[in-house]
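Suppose you are handed only these lines of text.
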Amino acid sequence: MKQIVVISGKGGTGKTVISASFASLAEKKVMADCDVDAADLHLLLHPTVKEEYDFLGKVARIDQERCTQCGRCQEVCRFEAISDFTIDPVSCEGCGVCAYVCPQKAIEMVEDVSGKWFVSETKYGPLVHAKLGIAEENSGKLVSLVKQKARQIAEEEGCEFIIIDGPPGIGCPVIASLSGVDVALIVSEPTLSGIHDLERVAGVAHHFGVRSLVCINKYDLNMENSQQIEEFCQSHGIEIAGKIPFDSTVTEAMVCGKSIVEYSDGKVSRRIKEVWEKVKEV
Ligand code: SF4
Ligand code: SF4
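From them, the structure of the protein bound to iron/sulfur cluster can be written out as follows.
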């Protein structure tokens, strides 16, 4: 069984369009939406939720009877979550430093529901996805949980692939989504910031020893920048899995709630199919 993660240096590069297309092209697979801060794969896959679970995070709570109001916890909280010897659960990131330094042992870390995760059925197969609460952190932990469940289902059902729609950026959730995967497909776009974002995310994948492939989305919007991306990839030994042209049918497919490869047999679909073949081959 092979795990493929689709990532990008930032949001809005077309990552989910490609993940959803892979979902309809791959046989015997489980999908995992690990973009838990802005999950949207479900908009294209129309899941029917079969199982729903709470995702528990931790927040600090002060026992006012024990607290001597020494102020030590307030000094050490980097997230300014404590004022007047009271903890604001929304600002608290659950790091536990305040509980560690409190001389009175007056701070307890308690469990708090910070999101939900789901196992669903779609017409393409099982989907594990999640929703993190507003202003909640710990998304790296939630990503790991979603991947772990997807792997379990893939093993039980004898699947060939786990297709992961990864989070954008280079933070903790991206690192969690890269862990243990066989290949990362980085979706890039031909803008100056896109090139910079690609360099950063490719650096993270390389650091964690994950083989990367690059797909340039809307490559024909700026041929010069696309050329720069290709040169960057060449000089870093990263293979280009394909170049996808701009086409308004992609938006039309999204409005209809379909993956582009299902919606049309045009040039974008043909190129995405080629990218999938390349990823499969690798
Ligand atoms: S460190 Fe402990 S005793 Fe001091 S103010 Fe905070 S909770 Fe109260
Ligand atoms: S657990 Fe961390 S973030 Fe929360 S109040 Fe304590 S020090 Fe601040």
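What can we learn from it? Residues 60, 77, 79, 81-82, 87, 92-98 surround iron/sulfur cluster (ligand 2) (CB under 6 Å). The chain has two domains: 2-46+123-281, 58-113.
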